[in-house]
Amino acid sequence: MGTSKSNSKQKMDKKIISIIKSKIKEINACEKNPLILISTGAYCPPHKVHIQNFVICKNQIKTHNLILGLISPSHDNYVNYKNPSPWNLNSEVRLKLLDSIIKEEKQDNFLLSDSWESEQEDFVHFPSVFKLRGEEIKEICKSKFNLNIDFGFIMGADLVIRTKCMKHMSQIGILVIILRPDWDNNFIFEMKNNLDKQLQDNVIIVELNENYFCDPMSSTLIRDLFQQEKYDQVIKFTSKDSVDILKKYFEKSKNIKE
Fewest CB within 10 A of the end CB: N or C in the chain? Predict the structure, then answer.
């Protein structure tokens, strides 16, 4: 790992340590096992639902004490493959956008953008992200606080079906699934019931209650709104700084090409 990547990881780990340190009395007083969740994805660009998913989990998970959420943007190689130019945003700008939304939503003592995955040599499949990054974070918690944590993966129901991730349950550990209110979610329950009993216990299903209001929000929608210069709508779904971050990014990309 190069010096800049090493420094970046050290800064990231210091942020994790700082958040856990601020909560250590609460963690030790709670009878439930402390849980850290991670999510992966392109986040190209990220939006408020990505943040809200973690907040919903924090409020609804009863089996664990959810102390920290990590949002891990995928490697640039994956984004370059998935999204055509100019929307193949590099990890630096995706991390900036995530940080701006987390701060605006006042979740910066609970959520962090995590640069580990984007700084690897190439795209890392999600079970490997879970295993490798999870081992590092468990070691941090153990060595700094003598704290044994559970580490889990958070996914929307649509992504669970698309990636067939329950086949990887033995590698994932804890899987938190957020059901989509506009879907017939019976298939998710069937997939869970087909697992061995021990693995079933590691699948936590979070159902959105009827009072949860969800605007139709997606990265595709935000890209379209930005291209149409509907910046007020982009800000509504992301953050007040997001438009400036994206404008500066595209202007810099344009100058490089010229």
Answer: C
